[in-house]
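TASK: fixed-backbone design
INPUT:
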């Protein structure tokens, strides 16, 4: 790939493609993460809510890779807000992973998943302050958020000391979130693109298939490369080794003309 890493505003580098583990059950996570590591992934993304941290951590510990050569992300559950609640959840995550430190810790969402859009500003601020402490104590190399809109980010900027280093959002062809991405770029917040394949729904697009054929790549490779070419960090997920390998083979660049075509596509999930 032309770009091997993104760099957070604190100087920490993060590999430019991550292996996502959302919806991978704990019993499958060990083999999936092992396959990813075996095929060159050095960035693994999990969360306490995924209920697979235990086997994600075990796969990393068992694999023949130095701890400093693999970047590990986990997340504070969306429904757990507050200072002490965050410290407790972090301890739970670290016990599950069996690691000495975390590379990136995110607030998973600004609201609980069963109450999307509700206002938890104060809880997010308290959680962020706890994460600042964990960061300042050297337990996390970088801290960030996920699913935060501009107003959620602004509340952190207005009330806390450290600007989030990352915002992990749903981002894919047809959902480029221009205003949010522009706000993140303005504040030097790296945008991570989760669900770069729109949870698989982009794969059946005849229009994308035709364009992928032009580049001699799979539709998935085209969709993941799109994220990179739009300066976002994709987090593809698969439990199949062939696709795990393909999803990292991105040594091509989409032309400006074709990017413009992709930019105009509508959201397949709308």
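OUTPUT:
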């Amino acid at each position: 790939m032309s770009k091997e890493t993104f760099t957070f505003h604190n100087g920490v580098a993060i590999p430019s493609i991550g292996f996502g583990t959302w919806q991978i059950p704990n019993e499958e996570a060990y083999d999936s993460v092992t396959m990813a590591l075996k095929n060159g992934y050095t960035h693994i993304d999990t969360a306490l809510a995924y209920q697979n941290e235990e086997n994600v951590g075990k796969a990393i510990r068992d694999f023949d890779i130095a701890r400093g050569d693999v970047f590990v992300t986990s997340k504070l559950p969306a429904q757990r807000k507050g200072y002490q609640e965050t410290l407790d959840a972090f301890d739970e995550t670290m016990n599950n992973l069996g690691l000495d430190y975390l590379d990136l810790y995110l607030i998973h969402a600004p609201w609980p998943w069963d109450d999307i859009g509700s206002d938890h500003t104060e809880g997010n601020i308290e959680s962020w302050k706890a994460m600042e402490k964990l960061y300042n104590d050297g337990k996390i190399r970088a801290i960030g958020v996920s699913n935060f809109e501009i107003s959620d980010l602004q509340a952190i900027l207005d009330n806390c000391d450290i600007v989030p280093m990352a915002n992990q959002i749903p981002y894919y062809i047809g959902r480029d979130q221009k205003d949010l991405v522009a706000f993140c770029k303005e504040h030097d917040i790296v945008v991570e693109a989760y669900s770069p394949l729109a949870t698989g729904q982009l794969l059946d697009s005849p229009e994308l298939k035709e364009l992928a054929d032009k580049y001699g790549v799979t539709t998935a490779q085209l969709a993941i490369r799109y994220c990179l070419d739009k300066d976002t960090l994709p987090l593809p997920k698969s439990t199949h080794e062939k696709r795990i390998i393909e999803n990292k083979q991105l040594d091509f660049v989409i032309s400006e003309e074709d990017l413009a075509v992709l930019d105009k596509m509508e959201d397949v999930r709308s």
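COMMENT: Residues 5-263 form a domain with the TIM Barrel fold (CATH 3.20.20.100).
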